[in-house]
């Protein structure tokens, strides 16, 4: 029996609050004007959205809030009800708590029950990992519709009382690099006119013996006063490794699909930052493809970003168009990607 095609019926996204520009960040954390210039030139991201109020420190949106909004939009776009969802998967690096899993809180809010649910904790490859799990489950023939989410709420790690100027650069960079947001897609074995088919999902851990490029600590009551740095990023290692890893991912995906670079109509490159995305896209060197990027305007929303890219790409795709998306996870180095085609 032939495997069914897996179609993307719809996509939904959510961003918390108004965009926060670099000048606002510099002013809020009493940083010198050169800091704003550093963000503009070194990071290359103009604005991002935070789930907390920068004035009061109040968390205005939880990960469940953002995930619920994005998922509800995706279900509405697909014309489906909660009862039509057969499996649900969330990829995130920043769940609301260790337990219960945020995916189950979102399911409860949406009225989804009596289905398999999965929460995958991972960096920027988590969205692709979630797609992979859902894709394989739908290919089994036991399920019809899958709701797949990627979401981040990193702002809860921001301590507004901290003297930002005294922090190491490896921690400062996280405060300007990342933003909060959520995305969701509905996958289905039931075809609809003009929908994109998920042709391939690629995942590979390549971190054996390599130091993490990013770490995020968990603190509980017993170690909340630890002097460990809560978040750190080796931006130089990421800058050196990610472009080549993205190029390797593209090469391996094209080989698996028997596609040529000239077959790609839309390219969804990794969205680390505005500056890094430019470097990565140059290394990928696919001049025939239209680049779909949004990190400059919304910041690095981690596992939500591929859904924001899809939200921009899918309406543009017509019969015969092919799209490749790539995500690189730099905490322990994972290459990931997916390919779409409109038949």
From TrEMBL:
<dbReference type="Pfam" id="PF08545">
    <property type="entry name" value="ACP_syn_III"/>
</dbReference>
<feature type="domain" description="Beta-ketoacyl-[acyl-carrier-protein] synthase III N-terminal">
    <location>
        <begin position="118"/>
        <end position="198"/>
    </location>
</feature>
<dbReference type="InterPro" id="IPR013747">
    <property type="entry name" value="ACP_syn_III_C"/>
</dbReference>
<keyword id="KW-0012">Acyltransferase</keyword>
<dbReference type="InterPro" id="IPR016039">
    <property type="entry name" value="Thiolase-like"/>
</dbReference>
<dbReference type="Pfam" id="PF08541">
    <property type="entry name" value="ACP_syn_III_C"/>
</dbReference>
<keyword id="KW-0963">Cytoplasm</keyword>
<feature type="domain" description="Beta-ketoacyl-[acyl-carrier-protein] synthase III C-terminal">
    <location>
        <begin position="254"/>
        <end position="325"/>
    </location>
</feature>
<protein>
    <submittedName>
        <fullName>3-oxoacyl-ACP synthase III family protein</fullName>
    </submittedName>
</protein>
<keyword id="KW-0808">Transferase</keyword>
<dbReference type="InterPro" id="IPR013751">
    <property type="entry name" value="ACP_syn_III_N"/>
</dbReference>
